[in-house]
Amino acid sequence: MDDVKVRLLQALEQNHRITTKALATMLNITEIKVKEMVEELEEAGLILGYVTLIDWEKTGCPDKVTAVIDVKVAPQREVGFDVIAERICRFSEVKSVYLMSGGYDLSVVIEGTSMKQVAYFVAEKLATLENVQSTITHFVLKKYKQNGIFFDKDKKDRRLVISP
């Protein structure tokens, strides 16, 4: 992949709302070329979607509970972890699924409206799947940074200044 496309992808990853005019200026190419490249990257499956990160705590909407679930799985012959991972991905509560190294095979990130709903998901939907051997659930207590974006950016830096 050429350098211009890589820089385009990096810019879009940082800010998907950046204008084609700004991208053209950054990359030293025409706006038409930017639009063509973006379409090409979308069609090739390199750009999979565009995400808006929302700080739900500031909205006043009912709280969301986020949990990270470590899942131990018995891999299946000839398909490994792929089939079970794809099945887990289909649940609406599931936001992300990662194949991991270490003590557990999959890391599943889910969102629910309560701890009880998350517990129900784990007990009734996830743990009952064939080949799932065990789970460990971790509840997210506070988000500091997600997708490279800081939450509570406006808070004053309370670190002490160090001077020689």
Helix coverage percent: 25-40%
Mean pLDDT figure = 91
Main beta sheet strand tally, sense and closure: 4 strands, antiparallel
Helical segment count: 5
**SSE string, helices as H and strands as E:** HHHEHEEHEEE
Q: Quick one: how many beta strands?
A: 6
Strand content: 15-25%
CATH arch. level architecture of the largest domain: 2-Layer Sandwich
Fourth-tier CATH superfamily name of the largest domain:
Lrp/AsnC effector binding domain/regulation of amino acid metabolism (RAM) domain
Approximate shape? globular
Radius of gyration: 21 Å
Low-pLDDT residue intervals, each spanning 5 or more residues: none
What top-tier CATH class of the largest domain fits best?
Alpha Beta
Strands in their spatial order, largest beta sheet: 2-3-1-4
Which structural class is indicated by helix and strand composition? alpha+beta
CATH topology of the largest domain: Alpha-Beta Plaits
Q: How many structural domains in the coordinates?
A: 2
From the N-terminal CA to the C-terminal CA, the straight-line distance is: 47 Å
